[in-house]
């Protein structure tokens, strides 16, 4: 095996020793077919090594992008779930608000009907002023004493107020 040498050994005569230097004079190139095949194989190996290194770098870049993509996908999936939950919550609130609004509209319509009924009744009622005859003084004094005895002062005042309101409405 002492006769097998690589191109690197041949170019670097110092590494192999003097015996190779004596066999190949400086400045002269080896011309055998075997040496050309070795040179082509070496170039192919260098190219393959470069391709492997390049592919490894590309693979690392792809792996980093894939990891980042997975993280973003998880983040966006979480955000989408949160937004869907918020949408459902808002839809429920909207439904409840619409139900309340519908109930309030029904109340408003009911009250408007009541107001119209009462306005109609008010128009139908002819408020005729009730003429009260002037009571004689002795009867007035007797009634006053009876009212005081029975404790009906509040009732009398209430009736006076009602009569005053009717007078105002006319």
Q: Describe the biggest sheet?
A: none
Task: Kindly state the percentage of residues in helix.
Answer: over 70%
* Overall form: rod-shaped
Q: How many beta-strand runs?
A: 0
- What structural category characterises the helix and strand content? mainly alpha
Query: With helices defined by DSSP (H or I, 4 residues minimum), what is the helix count?
Result: 6
* Unreliable segments of 5+ consecutive residues: 15-22
Average pLDDT taken over every residue? 78
Radius of gyration: 58 Å
End-to-end gap: 139 Å
Series of secondary-structure elements, N-terminal to C-terminal: HHHHHH
Give the strand content: under 5%
Coiled coil: 73-128
Protein name: 11236_t:CDS:1
Keywords: Coiled coil
Entry keywords:
single chain; 170 residues; mainly alpha; 6 helices
Task: Describe the structure in your own words.
It contains 6 helices and no strands. The protein is mainly alpha-helical. It has a domain at 133-170. It is rod-shaped and about 165 Å long.
Topology:
Blueprint: H1 7-11, H2 13-16, H3 18-23, H4 33-124, H5 137-150, H6 153-169
Short summary of the structure?
The chain is an all-alpha fold and 170 residues long. The protein contains 6 helices and no strands. Residues 15-22 have low confidence and may be disordered.
């Amino acid at each position: 095996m002492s006769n097998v040498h690589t191109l690197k050994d041949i170019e670097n005569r110092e590494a192999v020793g003097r015996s190779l230097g004596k066999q190949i004079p400086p400045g002269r190139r080896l011309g055998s077919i075997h040496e050309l095949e070795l040179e082509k194989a070496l170039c192919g190996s260098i190219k393959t090594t470069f391709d492997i290194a390049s592919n490894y770098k590309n693979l690392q870049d792809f792996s980093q992008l894939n990891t980042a993509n997975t993280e973003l996908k998880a983040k966006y999936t979480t955000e989408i779930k949160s937004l869907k939950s918020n949408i459902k919550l808002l839809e429920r609130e909207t439904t409840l608000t619409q139900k309340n609004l519908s109930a309030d509209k029904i109340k408003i319509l009911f009250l408007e009907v009541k107001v119209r009924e009462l306005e109609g009744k008010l128009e139908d009622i002819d408020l005729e002023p009730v003429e009260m005859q002037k009571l004689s003084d002795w009867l007035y004094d007797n009634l006053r004493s009876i009212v005081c005895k029975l404790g009906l002062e509040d009732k009398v005042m209430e009736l006076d107020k009602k009569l005053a309101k009717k007078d105002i409405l006319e």
